[in-house]
Fold:
Amino acid sequence: MRLETDFRTWLIAEPTVAALVGGRIFGLVREPQAALPAINIQRIVTVRQELFCGVAPLVSTDLQVDSYAIDGDGAWTLAAVLRLALKNFSGPMGATQVDKVFLVNEFPLVDPDPGIIRVVQTYNFWYVED
Structure:
């Protein structure tokens, strides 16, 4: 689970993201009654390559990143900030060495909480797993 925690720490340190959400970045479940805007991160799939000489160290993982806001403009603004921060990203993300990040999918949803809008983004991370 290091990727998720390193990604969260990296987002909190990213000035454009921090300006919008501060530390309101959650894993799996957004805290009830949490202030908005906020971000939720969860792993949805991981693929490891099996080679003849063992398992490859480069892993492919999809993370779902939900941008929550009280209106569509706020949610799309937060999603755009995330998209720009991760565009062509490669390098260290805390203790995790990220080879490449790709935005795979992006779409809006109405949250079960009345009046809250979220934009769902799926990012594919290629990173070195130790």
